[in-house]
Amino acid sequence: MTAEQIVLLGGLWLDGSVWADVVNELGERGRRAVPVTLPGQGDGNNSATLADQLTAVLAAVDADPGRSVLVGHSAACTLAWMAADARPERVATVVLIGGIPSGDGQPYADFFEINDGVMPFPGWRPFDGADAADLDEQARQVFAAAAIPVPEGVARGVVRLTDERRFDVPVVMVCPEYTPAEAQEWIAAGEVPELTRATHVEFADIDSGHWPMMTRPAELARILASV
């Protein structure tokens, strides 16, 4: 049987190139990875919407005749979950790295101030602590310089979920700046309704900050290859 393709979705301010080292590591493990540069996050389209991003993800899923492993990072955990909702029969597993999926009717990523129709990277203060602990000053400067402002139509887009078959799609939570035990507590307490209703959730720990594709690509690829 042909292994499922692995579709990689970066979080806010990132384009598909952030996955380059992970893609190479997965290739060495015999896995085919497809990093997606989301509309509005690398193509210069500041008018892109959340619906545009979902369309791009579904195009990657539909381009493969088999089923896909969808990997969402940070805010894009919700995007991966939206794609599983739209194509539950075509998604083998959803992998959530450093994030949890929002529910139907909630804003996608309205986290920071919007300026001139986009949400710029807000600087490192909101990420003080475990999030950025494994990024040195040079890495932070490189990240900030390359960060792509997220279009307002993406950040303030409204999540729509309609197919309850999504709850039967297996989920793997990759836990970077928090522990699997903490994630399990959130789910058990009902703080993550979408995952509380999911029928099969597993957990993988990774010793990193919020961006393991940058700081622990080999370890992250090992986890993804095992899915």
TrEMBL record:
<dbReference type="InterPro" id="IPR029058">
    <property type="entry name" value="AB_hydrolase_fold"/>
</dbReference>
<dbReference type="InterPro" id="IPR000073">
    <property type="entry name" value="AB_hydrolase_1"/>
</dbReference>
<dbReference type="Pfam" id="PF12697">
    <property type="entry name" value="Abhydrolase_6"/>
</dbReference>
<dbReference type="InterPro" id="IPR050228">
    <property type="entry name" value="Carboxylesterase_BioH"/>
</dbReference>
<feature type="domain" description="AB hydrolase-1">
    <location>
        <begin position="6"/>
        <end position="222"/>
    </location>
</feature>
<dbReference type="GO" id="GO:0016787">
    <property type="term" value="F:hydrolase activity"/>
</dbReference>
<protein>
    <submittedName>
        <fullName>Alpha/beta fold hydrolase</fullName>
    </submittedName>
</protein>
<keyword id="KW-0378">Hydrolase</keyword>
